[in-house]
Amino acid sequence: MRVTICHTSGVKASSVQSVCALLNEADKQIIQVEQGALDAAAVDAVWQAHVTDATTDASWDLIYAVIRDLRVQLDIDDSTTHFVYLLTEKANANRWFSFHEPIGTGANVYIHTADWGGFMPGTSDFIFPVAHLVASNVLHRLVYPLMNDWDAAAHDIPEGCLMDKCMNKREIRLKLKAVDVCPLCQPDYQRALDEKRLHPNVLLDGLAMLEKVRSRFLFSDRTGLQKQPSRLEVRKHDGLLFLTDFGQLVPLPPQHWALYVYFLENAAERGIQCHQINQDRLLELYQLVARAGDLGAMIATVQRMCEETSFNTKISEIRKHFREVVGEYLTETYYLWPKRSDSQRMIPLDRKLVVVLDRDTPS
Ligand SMILES: [Zn+2]
User: Fold this and answer.
1) Burial (0-12, 13-18, 19+ Cβ within 10 Å), 316
2) Residues 6 or more apart in contact with residue 275 via CB below 8 angstroms
3) Which terminal Cβ of the chain has fewer Cβ within 10 Å, N or C?
4) pLDDT digits (tens, 9 = 90+) for 119-156
């Protein structure tokens, strides 16, 4: 069972990557969540080919046609064992946050990503709600093949059940904590299992993903009050930084990643200035994550990174990336030392929170 996620250009690729990483962190048997091999511009083009009237919100039928077309472009056949999701900031005519295409066609799901701000901690706020919707829509689609059936079965008044309707985005905080199927809804799930529409492992995987989202959300909800830093995974095998407890990636480009990891290694107690950097070590880190390029070009890049102007620019760009994910306070207090006149830079984060992973480390 696969879940392939596409998104329009109004949705940040790094946020989608965070959603996939969060869901794949769950202990699963058979569901794999992945980003589709279509870039946002290609998805935009498919959207525009079907939704030609930009003045009104797209009807569900048009959106189904968009996702079906994405399915063709991705070369995925119409099967209920391969879900295709469209994440978009573009609204739909009925103003639902998510919905799936009826039975008889592929398992196609739409999720609205805009306007979650203000209800979630941090600034990349859609990750928890959207991850929850990705996981729950797999189950909804298999248990209630028609949206009308789902609509009739769902609770208008929240029961702490997976089938609670979320009528406005303010209610999402409550919904994120609901990962159970209540006794009222259990017969529907049982029937889906009996009729083999829902595989028992898919049910378990769906619930495991929801539980992962819930626990991460509860943790980050608390850190919103306490403002504690998250553990930080430095992933040498894929060049990512992952804030484990927030379920979020910090999307740093390769040069920024190398510089940041260099600082993690070398600037715990004392700050360093750009001319003090050991360029051989910085080059090693950069080589881990730079896509390609010959050695000479990489050495030149590293030399440039250590020149004061370029160095300062990189630091301020790193700051911007962190701020977008964890906000000003955590960035300045833990992840990057504030601007100072003597230009010494350091990262005060407690190194016990730093976990370094590479290819040989089981994750
Ligand atoms: Zn229920």
Assistant:
1) exposed
2) 306, 308
3) C
4) 665 545 788 889 999 999 999 999 998 888 999 999 98
Instruction: State the distance from the centre of ligand 1 to the C-alpha of 23, rounded, in angstroms.
Output: 23
The alpha carbon of 183 is separated from its chain's Cα centroid by a whole number of angstroms, namely: 31
pTM value? 0.72
pLDDT in tens, 238-280: 888 998 877 778 889 999 999 999 989 887 667 778 888 999 9
Could you write out the DSSP letters of every residue in 8-53? -TTS-HHHHHHHHHHHHTS--SS-EEEE-SS-HHHHHHHHHHH---
The rounded distance, in Å, linking the Cα atoms of 210 and 26 is 9
Measured in residues, the chain has a length of 363
Whole-number Cα distances in Å, 241 to 19, 34, 117, 120, 290: 14, 18, 23, 21, 15
User: What order do you get walking across the sheet with 2-7 strand by strand?
Assistant: 32-35, 2-7, 82-88, 108-112, 98-100
Instruction: State how far the Cα of 122 lies from the Cα of 220, in Å rounded to an integer.
Output: 8
Cα separation of 62 and 258, whole Å?
Answer: 44
Q: Are 90 and 18 in contact (CB under 8 A)?
A: no
Taking the centre of ligand 1 as the mean of its atom positions, its distance from the CA of residue 155, in whole angstroms, is 6
Number of separate helices (H) and strands (E) present in the chain: 12, 9
154 C-alpha to ligand 1 centroid (Å): 7
**Three-state DSSP class for residue 155:** strand
Tell me the DSSP string of 160-180.
SSTTB---SGGGHHHHTT--S
Q: What per-residue string of b and e applies to 239-257 under the rule 16 or more CB within 10 Å gives b?
A: bbbbbbbbbbbbbbebbbb
Rounded distance between C-alpha atoms, residue 348 and residue 345, angstroms: 10
